[in-house]
């Protein structure tokens, strides 16, 4: 490599960060086909505020059967799953 450095003449300059300038730059970028680059939230189901709450994926007919039974009993699907888990545990005591 030769002794010249073509980047040596570049200098950092502070960018204008006023609201108007940022809006103008965003408009110019969008007009030229650039997309919004702000970070996106993670895809998928939002985390449950309830500790240990499950969101199982089941076959559609199984999900419909659980929903129907929960409605018939007047409980939520989560409560029905808890009842089923208790029955399972009581029948599989080691």
Automatic annotation (TrEMBL):
Domain of life: Bacteria
Region (Disordered) location: 30-53
Protein name: Chromosome partitioning protein ParB
Composition skew (Basic residues), residue ranges: 39-48
């Amino acid at each position: 490599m030769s002794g010249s450095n073509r980047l040596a003449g570049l200098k950092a300059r502070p960018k204008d960060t006023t609201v108007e300038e940022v809006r103008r730059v965003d408009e110019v970028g969008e007009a030229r086909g650039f997309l919004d680059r702000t970070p996106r939230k993670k895809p998928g189901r939002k985390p449950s505020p309830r500790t240990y709450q499950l969101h199982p994926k089941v076959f559609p007919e199984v999900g419909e059967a659980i929903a129907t039974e929960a409605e018939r009993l007047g409980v939520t699907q989560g409560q029905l799953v808890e009842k089923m888990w208790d029955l399972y545990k009581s029948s599989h005591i080691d």
